[in-house]
Every structure is written in structure tokens, then in C-alpha cells.
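Review form for a predicted model. The reviewer records the input and the model, then writes brief findings.
Reviewer: anonymous (R2)
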Amino acid sequence: MALTAETESRLYRSLRVAAGAAAHLVALGFPAAVAVLVRPGSSLFSWHPLLMALAFSFLMTEALLIFSPETSLLRSFSRKVRVRAHWALQLLALLCALLGLGIITYNKHLNGKGHFVTWHGLTGLLAVLYTGGQCAGGVLLLYPKLMKNWTLAKLKLYHATSGLVGYLLGCASLMLGMCSLWFTTTVTGVSWYLAMLCPLVTSLVIMNQVSNAYLYRKRSQH
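Model under review:
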């Protein structure tokens, strides 16, 4: 029997809610697993993977999910409150990323190792710099009059799209980090594949959220 449009809509919404709930769990569970793995404080290096996991898996994911109409933890609050929470989470993510970058740079200096000579290192550096630029670009949404030839709606759309690129860079950096010698010798078998799935799951959910926002804007113009 063919599904009605209403049934399809409910099914799609239910799938989005389930995917969003999974993203919340993964966003928190991944850094928690990393914390157990590295035992923060056991070495200077131990802070690097934890801070990067907090930045790009937990804080940035939650900062973006906060605008999801189905799975935002603050969906009952006003948009003004959600925007402020988004700003706070993004700034915390940037702070964690900068600290993580500084720690690994100093640790390599102490051990006489080269800086940014791997794909993981280069992607991580790009992700951190991009995040800083994205946060700076977000100021334009607070003061849209600075961009006289751009509407606020267009600025929001481009900010969301640009933010998605930065988020995917961060997830790519996490995945490349899980291909490092340290991680592959510490985490093996099925656990390694499950770890790799974590940034993939959150990336797919965030991409779906941004694409839906884009489609909604297109429909509202007609």
C-alpha cells in the first residue's frame, strides 16, 4: 500500500529526530571515550586529543544542532537565547581547538619533531584557522548593516554553509587523527571502526540540517 504524503512526512520527521538523538549521543560519547583512552594529565600529549574531540565532536556539534527544529536541546527557548548559546559554544570550541593546537605544537617542539608534516596536522591547522575565521564572520550577523548589499537572510545562509565547511574540516581532522600510529596501536579491531563512524554520523546529521535550511529558504521565496 502506498504511503500518504502525511505518513511520509511523519516518517521523515521521526527519522530526523532519531538521527538527531544519535548525533547528541555520539557528540558526547566520543570525547568521553577519548578521555578514558588518553587519561588526561597522564602526559602533555594526552590533552591534545581530548581538547580536539571536545572542540569538534561535542561543542561544535551542539552549537550547530541548537538550531535543529526537531532535536535542539533549547528548541523551547527563543531564537535570541539559542543564538547566544550558539555563540558561547562556538567560542568554547575555538578555545579548546586553539589550546589543543598549542599543546601539540609545544609537545612536538619538546620532542624535536616536525610541525604540520602530516595530513592530520595540516588539516587540523586549517580547521582551527577556519574556525577562527568563521567566528569572526559571525560578527556580521550581529551587525548586518556592515554588509549593506547583503540581506540578513542571505548572510545567515552563507554563514551556515561556511560553518558546515569548517565543521567537516574538523571532522576530517579527527578521522585523520584516528589513522595515526598512536591511535591505531591503541584502538584496534571493531572499536577502531566504531570510532571512525562517530564523526561520520554527526557530519551526515549536520549536512542534512543545513540542506533542509537551504531548501526551506528556496521554498519561502516562491
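Findings: Residues 5-38 form the longest helix (34 residues).
Further findings: The mean pLDDT is 89.
Recommendation: see findings above.
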